[in-house]
Amino acid sequence: MADSVFDHVVRAPEDPILGVTVAYNKDPSPVKLNLGVGAYRTEEGKPLVLSVVRQAEQSLVNDVSRVKEYLPIVGLAEFNKLSAKLIFGADSPAIQENRVTTVQSLSGTGSLRVGGEFLARHYHERMIYIPKPTWGNHPKVFTLAGLSVKDYRYYDPATRGLDFQGLLEDLGSAPSGAVVLLHACAHNPTGVDPTIEQWEQIRQLIRSKKLFPFFDSAYQGFASGSLDADAQSVRMFVADGGECMVAQSYAKNMGLYGERVGALSIVCKTSDVAGRVESQLKLVIRPMYSNPPIHGASIAATILRDKDLYNEWTIELKAMADRIISMRHQLFEALKARGTPGDWSHIIKQIGMFTFTGLNSEQVAYMTREYHIYMTSNGRISMAGLSSRTVPLLADAIHAAVTRAS
Over the Cα atoms of the chain, what is R_g? Predict the structure, then answer.
C-alpha cells in the first residue's frame, strides 16, 4: 500500500487539562477521583443541569413557532443585549449611551479568539500581557489570533497569594498601549483575586499607562455567589469612561458547557465608534464560523429575560458557589486534623472553582500513582469535583504526598 501523504505527521501530546480526564478514564480503580476538569459536580459526583435550564429548554421545545434558521453573524440580539446588561449592570452609562457592541460567540474561548483577532487587525499594539500563571489555552488562543504574548507576575508561590508588587512593576514597565488580559474574578488556575483596593490601583496604573484592558469573565456569580460582586472589577473600568473588552462565558454559571454560549463586548468612547467596531467584528466572525449556534443562547436569553427564572437562577448559582466554598472549608479542616505539614489557609482564602494547592509535580504524580487522584501537574485541583465523601481521601493523599513524596 502506498504511503499516506500525512506519514510525516507526528502524534501531538494530550492537552494538559483534558489529558487528565483521558488518563482518569483509563484507570480501572473503583476509588479513582478526577479533580482535573473545570466542570461542576454535585455532592454525588454527577454533572448538574440547572432546573432553570431545563425549564427554559422545555419552553423553547414547546414553542412550535420556533425555527432553525441561521442567526445573524453577531448572534441573537436579545442574548447580546442581556449579556451586556449582566456584566456591566442594568444602569451602566456605557449601555445607556450605546457605546457597547456585543457579539455572541462560542463560549469564552471563541470570544477570546474573536477579540484577539480583532485587536490584531485593528489595534495599534500587537502585544498582550497575560498573568503568570493563567489558563493554559490563553497563550495559544492569542498567539494564533496574531498577537505577541508576554507574561506579567501574578502568583507568589511563597505566600500562595497575589504577587501584587510584581504585577504593578511588570505592568508599569509594559509599553504604552499594550493589551492586558485580566481575569474578572476567580483567577484560573490559582483562585487568587486582587482585593477591590488592589483592583483600583491596577485600574489607575492601566489608565495612566494607556494600556488596554481585556477581561476574561468565565465565572460571574460562580465565585462569590453574587453576580454583581463578581462583576465589580469590570464595572470599575467601565465607570471611568475608558475603553475595554470583555469575553463572557455561560459554561460555568449556567452549566451550559457543551452548548458553547458566550459573548464578546467592546466598550467604546462613542456609539459611532461602537457601530464601526461591530461592522469589523462581523468580518472576523464570518470566515471563522459564519454565525453562532441558536440553542444555547436562546436558553440563556430566556433565563435572563424572565424575572422568575432569573431569580431562581441566582438561587441555584449561589447554591453551587456555596457548595464549593464548603468543600474548601472541609478540605482545610481535614488537613488541619491530620496535622499535615505547612500552612493550608490559602485553600479557604482562594476563590472560585480551582485551588492552587502548592503541590509540586512529583507530589501530584505520587497521589495519582498511590491514590488514583487525577489533577493537572501544576497542583491545580477543581474544588467542584470534590464531595464530603471524597474529601478524606484527598486529605489522606495530600498528607502522604507532603510527608513521604520527594
Answer: 22
**Letter for the amino acid at 303?**
I
Look-up of cell digits 513521604: 404
Strand partners, 183: 216
Instruction: Calculate mean pLDDT across residues 256-285.
Output: 98
pLDDT in tens, 136-184: 999 999 999 999 999 999 999 999 999 999 999 999 999 999 999 999 9
Q: Is 132 a catalytic residue?
A: no
Q: Return d(Cα 341, Cα 114) in angstroms, integer.
A: 46
Considering the candidates 163, 170, 193, 216, report the single residue annotated as catalytic. Answer: 216
Give CA–CA dist 375/373, Å, rounded: 7
pLDDT of 2 reads: 81
Distance CA 193, CA 222 (A): 14
CA distance 253 to 314: 9
> Is there a catalytic annotation at residue 252?
yes
- 7 labelled catalytic: no
pTM (2 d.p.): 0.95
User: Is the distance from CB of 375 to CB of 16 less than 8 angstroms?
Assistant: no
**Catalytic member of 193, 230, 252, 344:** 252
Rounded CA separation 299/36 (Å): 27
Cell numbers placing 286: 464570518
Q: Which residues contact 123 (CB under 8 A, 6 or more apart)?
A: 179, 212
pLDDT tens for each residue of 200-244: 999 999 999 999 999 999 999 999 999 999 999 999 999 999 999
Q: Over the range 143-174, which residues count as b (16 or more CB within 10 Å of their CB) and which as e?
A: eebebebbebbbbbeeebbbbbeebbebbeeb
